[in-house]
Amino acid sequence: MSQRRLEVVILAAGQGKRMKSRRIKVLHRAGGRALIDYVLDMSFALSGHAPVMVIGHDRDAVRAHCGERARYAMQEQQLGTGHAVLEAVRVLGELDGADVLVLSGDVPLTRPETLRALLDEHASRGHGVSMMTMVLDDAGSYGRIVRSPEGNVERIVEAKDASNSELQIREVNAGIYVFRGEHLAADLASLSPANAQGEYYLTDVIATARHRRETVGALIAEPIEALGVNSRADLAHVERELVRRSIARLMSEGVTFRNPESVTIDTAVRIGQDTIVYPFAVIEGDTTIGSDCVIGPGAHLKNCRVGSGVEIKTGTVAEDSTIADGAAVGPYAHLRGGSVLGEKVKVGNFVETKKAVFGKGAKASHLSYIGDAEIGAGCNIGAGTITCNYDGVHKHKTVLEDGVFIGSDTQLVAPIRVGKGAYVGAGSTITKDVPADALALTRTPQRNIEGWAARKREQQSGKE
Ligand code: UD1
Ligand code: CA
After folding, report:
1. 455: Cα separation from own chain's centroid
2. Is the Cβ–Cβ distance between 229 and 241 less than 8 Å?
3. Which of 203, 221, 47, 227 is nearest to 121 (CA)?
4. How high is the pLDDT of residue 3?
5. Average pLDDT, whole number, for the chain?
6. Beta-ladder partners of 346
7. Does the structure show a pLDDT above 60 at 2?
8. Which residues of the chain does CATH 3.90.550.10 include?
9. What tens digit of pLDDT does each residue of 191-204 get?
10. How far apart are alpha carbons 399 and 411 in whole angstroms?
11. Residues of CATH 2.160.10.10 domain(s) within the chain?
């Protein structure tokens, strides 16, 4: 069997009206990525080079998103799937010795193995066309597969053109095909829009191939692999399947999920062995978590690097942050962008950090705001400490050198530096740098007025 070249065409010119969205359908996201990203990955896994994507609606947005990952064919008017592939064929040029795989930009769940099986069967049986089909209880608006009494595929009839008996057919067209390149351009050019929708149907090429006495292959796939996104309900269905696949993969790699159905996790997320994920965690974007971590109930991580042996406690939110080995965060902590927690750092409940770098073993255990700060190793930041980093115009930096002790309820008015090993007394408002090993205090001295409370109570009881 001689090796034929593979070209991939991705159809993505339609707007997707049933999404009721200002954004084109293929740029809607599921599992943390745009639908079209999954299809581009599939295509690349099979052919190893950029496919031709047919674009029309919102073409600038699609092109900006996909960039160099595709070559583009413009379809000015959406005259039908046959017309769309013809535009792609014009960009592809000479197709002798090539097979053309057509994918839809809104069908993201097909596994590369399934497509490979389709291509293999197409090649080994010498079919003129092969396609993916599925068998549904409710065939809805899908094109119906019409087979001969011997079981050979003869043609596809669109639901809107189908007779009552054809509408009973439960095997339907998934919209994924392989064509032999030799006849494709001519077959597409000869399509007629004489049908219920007045469109050039790609599906009519099947009947053309049969008239030439070519055979047509049909690989019956699991419906989930052929699921196309037409509505928000379909999008949610795709999201659920992507999350299910991610969690299945992570469990097979040694991650425990205490209640997997409740967890939301993006496809790019990586998690190490023996980490335990509690219910209702949401782990998004480009997040990597090491081994032996605990990701607590309702934790929300986005684009984070988390080391090993880290505990992220209940309700913690972290974004664009790095958390090193052995750190403990939360419950209910908020790490905003640029937070970097060193080894064994502790950031406790109701602590907010932003652009703050914590050295090894530093602690801010309760109720603090630490922003635009460098916190040295071993510092201890008392409850209620606030870095006053903003003067209404500019952000300023707070630097605590190693081993600094900040008493509770301190305000550090930036720009400010506290030298190595210094202490700041509780309740201070620090506006001047503190030298190493000093104690800084800004409290007014305490005054006790003996008997004052007793006298006040006496006065009040006299008035009644
Ligand atoms: C198509 C098939 C149908 C199949 C179904 C599977 C045809 C005629 N029918 O129907 O048999 O069961 O897919 O999902 O092909 N597109 C363009 N340009 C166009 C028209 C469509 O790029 O002019 C793109 C769309 O953006 C979409 C894909 O082609 O990505 C399919 O188009 P759509 O209108 O959804 O086709 P269906 O009516 O669903
Ligand atoms: Ca469709």
Report:
1. 67
2. no
3. 221
4. 79
5. 97
6. 328, 363
7. no
8. 5-226
9. 999 999 999 999 99
10. 13
11. 316-440
pLDDT at 73 over 90: yes
Sign of CA dihedral 120, 125, 126, 131: negative
Pocket probe mutation, ligand 1, options 62, 81, 110, max atoms within 8 Å of Cβ: 81
Q: Where are the beta strands (DSSP E) in 148-299?
A: 153-157, 171-180, 216-220, 256-257, 264-265, 270-271, 276-277, 282-284, 288-289, 294-295
Q: How far apart are CA 249 and CA 366, in angstroms?
A: 37
Q: What is the per-residue pLDDT for 142?
A: 94
For residue 278, count other CB atoms closer than 10 A to its CB. 20
Place of tokens 């003067």: 391
Task: Locate 391 and state its tokens.
Answer: 């003067």
Task: Name the nearest CA neighbour of 218 among 167, 161, 175, 182.
Answer: 175
Out of 3.40.630.30, 1.10.10.10, 3.30.565.10, 2.160.10.10, which CATH number does the structure's domain 316-440 have?
2.160.10.10
99-129 b/e (C-beta count within 10 Å ≥ 16 → b): bbbbbbbbbbbbeeebbeebbeebbeeebbb
- Can you read off the two tokens belonging to residue 75? 């379809």
Which ligand is located closest to the Cα atom of residue 85? 1
Burial class (CB in 10 A: 0-12, 13-18, 19+), 242: buried
Distance 106 CA to ligand 1 centre (A): 9
Please state, in angstroms and rounded to a whole number, the distance separating the CA atoms of residues 378 and 392. 31
CB 203 within 8 A of CB 156: yes
Residue 8: which residues within 8 A CB-CB, separation 6 or more? 43, 46, 47, 51, 52, 100, 101, 102, 103
Say how far apart CA 369 and CA 329 lie, in whole Å.
Answer: 14
pLDDT at 463: 75
CA 82 to ligand 1: nearest atom: 15
Q: Does domain 5-226 have CATH number 3.90.550.10?
A: yes
Which two tokens mark 306?
């988390």
Q: What is the dihedral sign for C-alpha 236, 238, 239, 245?
A: positive
Ligand 2 mean position, distance from CA 230 (Å): 6
Taking a C-beta distance cutoff of 8 angstroms, is the pair 66, 40 a contact? yes
Q: What is the Rg, in whole angstroms, of the alpha carbon atoms belonging to the chain?
A: 32
- CA–centroid distance, 112 to ligand 2, in Å, is 20
Token couple for 315: 């309700």
Tokens of 60: 């600038």
